[in-house]
Design goal:
about 260 residues, alpha/beta, Rossmann fold, 7-stranded mixed sheet, two-stranded antiparallel sheet, globular, binds S-adenosylmethionine
Length: about 260
């Protein structure tokens, strides 16, 4: 573990039991968001980018320079703008989701579940169920194990292996620890309590803003599921949903 990771690990550890109360009627949470975010969402991210999001500019600028942020997030100006204009909660998802029970309408998780060992992922899915309101909906996007196997069987060994094994980049946040096909993910969602589990496709589903949030269509398995009976709000068409009042403010729950 390098120094930056040790500091981050310490910071997330002392906040591991944080619980925030989202304010507003229409709460959308993107967890493991990185800086790939959309207006109106609360983003949960464990890297130091999110920790320094609202600090004086010098701090995120230092992080930008000393991390590989330019490879992923474009220019320093763009990086700062994304951090400044969006809502981030700095939190390590190993500790679950930092929200009070039944407080979230929509959860979006793209290319994050494969970053956890299966027992931790099962715990996160249970916690996702806990924080969703009744009728709330989750969308999970992960690299598709079946697609990776098909690519392997077609003779493209290295291309297939890249879905399992990442680069030598240090840091616990950057490595894959498991893979899913639809049946496996469905059974994990069922074990967490979810119903109406459906395989979706790229930018197709009932979670708002997926036309902007979904990425990597070729390799990704998209799945949506519901907590209990579907809430009336998800039956509204996508255009109207993205115009509904956004809840991006929150307060700390006294714990
Ligand atoms: C592959 S990126 C996915 C980013 C984005 N959701 C997307 O679809 O492209 C995974 C992100 O999850 C974050 N992450 C990984 N493990 C985490 C953890 N234990 N707690 C919080 N964030 C984590 C990483 O820092 C990284 O930004």
């Amino acid at each position: 573990m390098n120094t930056i990771e040790a500091v981050n690990s310490f910071l997330t550890r002392i906040k591991r039991s944080q619980r925030v109360v989202p304010k507003g009627d229409f709460v959308k949470v993107n967890f493991g968001s990185s800086l790939f975010v959309q207006e109106g969402w609360i983003n949960v991210e464990g890297s130091l980018h999110s920790f320094f999001a609202k600090w004086p500019a010098i701090f995120p600028k230092v992080i930008y320079r000393f991390s590989r942020a330019s490879d992923w997030y474009g220019t320093e100006d763009k990086y700062l703008r994304v951090l400044r204009t969006n809502t981030f909660i700095h939190h390590d998802l190993d500790y679950g989701l930092p929200f009070t029970d039944n407080s979230v309408d929509f959860l979006y998780a793209s290319h994050i579940l494969e970053h956890f060992y299966p027992d931790v992922a099962a715990h996160i899915l249970k916690d996702a169920y806990r924080v969703l309101k009744k009728g709330g909906r989750i969308r999970i996007c992960v690299p598709d194990l079946r697609h990776a196997v098909d690519v392997y069987l077609s003779g493209q060994t290295e291309r297939a292996l890249k879905w399992f094994f990442k680069s030598s980049r240090p840091g616990k946040f950057y490595h894959h620890k498991y893979m899913y096909d639809f049946e496996l993910l469905k059974s994990k969602l069922e074990m967490a309590g979810f119903t109406s589990i459906e395989r979706c496709t790229y930018q197709q589903g009932k979670v708002p803003d997926i036309e902007k949030l979904d990425n990597r269509p070729e390799e990704t398995l998209y799945v949506e599921a519901v907590k209990g009976a579907e809430a009336p709000c998800v039956a509204i068409d996508a255009g109207s949903r993205s115009q509904m009042a956004h809840a991006t403010e929150y307060s700390q729950h006294p714990s």
